[in-house]
Design a protein that fits this description.
By secondary structure, the protein is an alpha+beta fold. It is built from 8 helices and 6 strands; from the N terminus they run E-E-H-E-E-H-H-H-H-H-H-H-E-E. Strands 1-2-3-4 form a 4-stranded antiparallel sheet, with helices on one face. Helix 3 packs antiparallel against helix 6.
């Protein structure tokens, strides 16, 4: 091939297609060029009555090799298929549920913080901070190490669910610190958030289950009962005009 950089290219010259030919020589000899290293296919024209004629030589690749190469090319999928992400379009209800779960994921921890500040429970504030840090740290580490794709194909941060871990951490903190009665509505909102993340195609069910376990475990580890620490007592009080319960604390 004489080291020509244009070798192995298709050369179009009027009605002929030349394979692995020297471009300069082919153009110099015109459409009737027949070079030693040239294999050409003559396209049909009026003079050939629509027939295709071939000009082959000893330097041409074997027909079997060409057929094998063509079959391999047909079996290879287009390159643009690899790495292409499917597109998911949420419905109107899914968009609404997604938005509501975003609101709950912010409102529930904010409510727990507000309750702690109103009680002036500084020890509880410290325990809540440890709970939040442990929950966020474990969730983010797993998200960026596992890199599971979301059901809506938006990114690869599906496992575990951050919304579930945050809300269940807040609900468990409230229940552990201030009593199970206060945690009932918090757990209801947390459960709704977990369901909404699955319904909205932001997480798989195992993502929200893992997130709930992380949040609840963090709160159980770092949070201690507020009433037990301060030796809270409930004493019934009855008089001639009223009846009630007296709540007492020791500081």
């Amino acid at each position: 091939m004489r080291g020509n950089k244009l070798a192995n290219r298709l050369i179009f010259s009027r009605n002929n297609i030349y394979f692995h030919a020297d471009k300069t020589a082919a153009l110099r000899h015109g459409k009737q060029a027949v070079l030693p290293e040239l294999w050409s296919r003559r396209l049909p024209d009026r003079r050939s009555n629509g027939k295709i004629s071939y000009k082959a030589c000893s330097a041409c690749p074997p027909q079997s090799l060409k057929l094998i190469l063509i079959m391999l090319l047909l079996l290879v999928p287009p390159l643009h298929i690899y790495g292409a992400e499917p597109v998911f379009t949420p419905t109107k209800s899914q968009k609404g549920i997604r938005t509501s779960t975003d609101v709950v994921a912010v409102a529930l921890p904010a409510a727990a913080l507000a309750a702690t500040l109103i009680q002036q429970d500084w020890e509880g504030l410290k325990e809540g901070a440890f709970t939040a840090a442990a929950t966020a740290g474990a969730t983010l580490i797993l998200k960026y190490s596992i890199k599971e794709r979301r059901p809506d194909f938006s990114n690869r941060h599906s496992f575990p669910s951050g919304h579930s871990s945050v809300t269940f951490a807040a609900a468990t903190y409230i229940g552990r610190r201030y009593g199970w009665k206060w945690s009932i509505p918090a757990y209801a909102l947390s459960t709704y958030t977990a369901w909404g993340r699955v319904y909205g195609k932001k997480h798989h069910w195992w993502d929200v289950a893992a997130g709930a376990a992380i949040g609840a475990a963090s709160a159980m580890i770092f949070t201690h009962p507020y009433m037990r620490k301060h030796e809270a007592t409930l004493v019934p009080s009855v008089s001639d005009t009223s009846a009630g319960i007296v709540l007492g604390f020791s500081f």
